From TrEMBL:
Pfam annotation, one family: Glyoxalase
SUPFAM superfamilies (UniProt xref): Glyoxalase/Bleomycin resistance protein/Dihydroxybiphenyl dioxygenase
Chain ranges of the VOC domain: 1-51
Superkingdom to which the source organism belongs: Bacteria
The protein's name: VOC domain-containing protein
Length: 54
Protein backbone atom coordinates (compact mmCIF):
# COMPACT_ATOMS: atom_id res chain seq x y z
CA UNK A 1 0.00 0.00 0.00
CA UNK A 2 1.25 3.48 -0.83
CA UNK A 3 0.30 6.88 0.56
CA UNK A 4 -1.45 8.45 -2.43
CA UNK A 5 -2.85 7.91 -5.92
CA UNK A 6 0.14 9.82 -7.31
CA UNK A 7 2.51 7.36 -5.60
CA UNK A 8 0.90 4.48 -7.53
CA UNK A 9 1.68 6.22 -10.82
CA UNK A 10 5.23 7.27 -9.89
CA UNK A 11 6.20 3.88 -8.44
CA UNK A 12 4.72 2.13 -11.48
CA UNK A 13 6.85 4.30 -13.79
CA UNK A 14 9.96 3.74 -11.65
CA UNK A 15 9.43 -0.03 -11.64
CA UNK A 16 9.14 -0.11 -15.44
CA UNK A 17 12.26 2.05 -15.76
CA UNK A 18 14.14 -0.57 -13.72
CA UNK A 19 13.03 -3.51 -15.86
CA UNK A 20 9.70 -4.60 -14.38
CA UNK A 21 6.91 -5.57 -16.75
CA UNK A 22 3.29 -4.46 -16.68
CA UNK A 23 0.68 -6.82 -15.27
CA UNK A 24 -2.03 -4.16 -14.81
CA UNK A 25 -1.81 -0.52 -15.89
CA UNK A 26 -2.56 2.08 -13.19
CA UNK A 27 -6.32 2.52 -12.88
CA UNK A 28 -8.91 3.99 -10.55
CA UNK A 29 -10.37 1.36 -8.22
CA UNK A 30 -14.15 1.10 -7.83
CA UNK A 31 -13.84 1.53 -4.05
CA UNK A 32 -11.74 4.68 -4.48
CA UNK A 33 -8.00 4.89 -4.60
CA UNK A 34 -5.80 3.61 -7.40
CA UNK A 35 -4.00 0.37 -8.21
CA UNK A 36 -1.49 -1.17 -10.59
CA UNK A 37 0.59 -4.34 -10.74
CA UNK A 38 4.08 -5.09 -12.08
CA UNK A 39 6.18 -8.25 -12.34
CA UNK A 40 9.83 -8.26 -11.29
CA UNK A 41 12.74 -10.14 -12.94
CA UNK A 42 11.77 -13.38 -11.19
CA UNK A 43 8.13 -13.13 -12.21
CA UNK A 44 6.89 -12.08 -8.77
CA UNK A 45 3.94 -9.71 -8.90
CA UNK A 46 3.97 -6.45 -6.92
CA UNK A 47 0.67 -4.70 -6.31
CA UNK A 48 0.72 -0.93 -5.92
CA UNK A 49 -2.44 0.21 -4.17
CA UNK A 50 -3.72 3.36 -2.51
CA UNK A 51 -6.81 3.35 -0.31
CA UNK A 52 -8.77 6.43 0.69
CA UNK A 53 -8.78 6.93 4.43
CA UNK A 54 -5.98 4.45 5.10
Amino acid sequence: MVASDEDVDSLFAAALAHGATTVTEPNDAPHGGRNACVADFDGHWWNLDSYPGA
